[in-house]
Design brief:
This protein has 571 residues and is α+β, with helices and mostly antiparallel strands. The chain is built from 21 helices and twelve strands. The longest helix has 35 residues, at 532-566.
């Protein structure tokens, strides 16, 4: 959920003032929380973690959610005919309009995106949530689609307060006034799955209350079944990235949203990620404390945190905050969680991050969390170590083990067929036709190998692309290559022995090879320094060249069509 709990946006409140917190809560030993919290986290004393009084209940709930997602996307699952017709009509109308007015024009993808977004809006919360996931996938989904679907983040009307009250009272089993001395009727944020209200507990703590929409659970089940029925029909019919085809996207969506429907799982995600940060000694990122008792399937009460909106880099700098350091520490914390513990926040975007006055980052909204078993965690670690040392074999082996390539793939053949072992080429030296030909060849080769983008890899890549894009405002003049060296050095010095055990070689003695990073950024020469401004200038040059190529192709297509009309005997 897009949550913007900034001080400036929090509504005014009435009622008892919060009780002064005890200095430096003892729960800091088990989690990366704020120093002076409103209560102390004791996982063993949180009844919502033991719904049936059995140890491991949370893991059972998570397993059941995953099983439900798999059932809903099975091809033989028969969806509601009425819902399929409604979805088909909405999406079909968008595709027909695009086919008549936009297809084959320079603005083809932008036109399709503009038509799909209102269709998703009219289809309700499930499709709005899908659009929001797409909107945070910069670099994975087409740019036009991402930009258009970003409008869905703020266009979900809140439920009536009477409905919110009823949900809370049903879930907590008592009247609202018995729990809260004040409750802000106007939500801080309203998203597809839930909305967030500020409130003050009877015990005096200022909190945030996340309340699930009443009909969203049943609608999600209905819509996933419909999506899985329709998605195969869209393959090859809409211009989306080949490796994120509609059926794969529906599968990913089902796995994430079904788990989001139980806020007990989200609260446990908060505890798990806070524990990961504490385990690495990471105190640059903090997690809000879930309430010890006030957590149910549809209601989540948590600590209320404040700070600068992530996009307000200028305000941070005016307050004396080193935004480049904030970005670096956020990246390190994210990588430590994924590579060393196999747990990471799966939906990083500007609405889920606040920067507190002391420069620490408050991480919000834990509905989507990446979880890796030990085999895949080590594969992620090998992937990153392979990138740092420019070891192509290690990287492709890791991608195979992550499920991006079939398990029987010939690693050296993949490297050869994709041309990964060829000298890197500066993309600005290629014509638009040459760039398009390269892209087609790589895509063809990947599809030939049965490549795909599994859930955890997509979440990881999406988060990395978000952090990379944040350099535009947080650290536009910082040397990217220098940052790579700094982060790699940090990992080798702080976690070198553990990484060596996991990947099977001594990372302390392995030289950092930046040639792979230079090539990936489009600077294959021996450039010593690359800033984000340099990168943006190069990307803009390539974008203009490709746009010109697209416009030329469209003009030629139009002229051919006219020629056929006036000289059908020469068609």
């Amino acid at each position: 959920m897009v949550d913007r709990m900034t001080s400036a946006q929090a509504p005014g409140t009435t009622g008892a003032a919060p009780a002064p917190p005890a200095p430096h809560n003892p729960d800091l030993a088990i989690g990366a929380f704020t120093p002076n919290g409103p209560w102390t986290v004791d996982p063993d004393a949180m009844p919502w973690r033991f719904a049936t009084g059995t140890e491991g209940d949370i893991d059972v709930l998570r397993t059941e959610a995953a099983a439900l997602a798999r059932r809903l996307v099975k091809p033989q699952h028969i969806p509601s005919v009425g819902r399929v017709l409604t979805v088909g009509l909405r999406l079909g109308s968008a595709l027909v309009g695009w086919g008549i007015h936009d297809r084959g024009t320079p603005g083809s993808r932008a036109g399709l995106s503009r038509r799909l977004r209102p269709a998703f809006e009219r289809l309700g919360p499930t499709y709005i949530k899908l659009g929001q996931i797409i909107s945070s996938g910069e670099g994975i989904f087409p740019e036009e689609l991402v930009e258009e679907f970003q409008l869905l983040r703020d266009r979900v009307p809140p439920e009536r307060f009477a409905t919110v009250r009823r949900t809370i009272e049903e879930e907590l089993g008592r009247p609202l006034a018995e729990v809260f001395v004040s409750f802000d009727r106007i939500p801080i944020a309203s998203a597809s799955i839930a909305q967030v209200h500020a409130a003050t507990l009877r015990t005096g703590e200022r909190v945030v209350v996340k309340v699930q929409r009443r009909t969203v659970a049943s609608m999600v089940r209905l819509d996933i079944a419909s999506m899985s029925w329709i998605a195969p029909l869209l393959v090859g019919r809409i211009p989306v990235t080949a490796l994120t085809n509609p059926p794969a996207l529906v599968e990913l969506f089902a796995e994430t949203i079904v788990e989001e429907l139980d806020f007990r799982l989200e609260a446990q995600n908060m505890l798990d990620i806070a524990a990961v940060f504490a385990g690495t000694g990471q105190r640059s990122v903090v997690v809000p404390r879930p309430h010890p008792e006030l957590v149910t399937r549809r209601v989540l009460v948590m600590e209320h945190l404040h700070g600068f909106a992530w996009a307000n880099a200028a305000g941070m700098r005016d307050a004396g905050i080193d935004t480049a350091a904030v970005l670096r520490s956020s990246l390190i914390a994210f990588l430590e969680g994924a590579l060393l513990y196999g747990v990471f926040h799966g939906d990083l975007h500007g609405g889920n991050l606040l920067v507190q006055p002391d420069g620490t980052v408050a991480l919000l909204d834990f509905g989507i969390t990446g979880r890796l078993d030990e085999f895949r965690r080590q594969a992620f670690l090998r992937l990153e170590m392979g990138a740092t040392t420019n070891n192509l074999t290690l990287q492709v082996e890791a991608l195979r083990d992550l499920g991006a390539l079939p398990g029987d793939s010939d690693v050296q053949a993949v490297i050869r067929d994709l041309g990964l072992d060829r000298p890197a080429v500066d993309p600005t030296t290629l014509t638009a036709e040459e760039m398009m030909a390269e892209l087609r060849e790589v895509t063809k080769a990947l599809l030939g190998y049965g490549a795909r983008l599994p859930k955890e890899l997509m979440l990881f890549v999406k988060d990395m692309l978000f952090l990379n894009g944040a350099m535009a405002s947080m650290a536009p003049d910082v040397d990217i290559l220098g940052e790579v060296v700094a982060v790699a050095t940090y990992f080798s010095e702080r976690h070198g022995e553990r990484i060596a055990r996991d990947v099977g070689f001594d990372v302390l003695s392995a030289p950092i090879d930046l040639d792979g990073y230079r090539a990936a950024l489009g600077f294959p020469d021996q450039t010593d320094s690359i800033t984000f401004r340099d990168l943006q200038e190069r990307r803009e040059l390539i974008r203009r060249r490709l746009q010109h190529h697209s416009e030329s192709q469209s003009r030629r297509s139009f002229l051919r069509a006219v020629y056929r009309l006036v000289r059908p005997d020469r068609g």
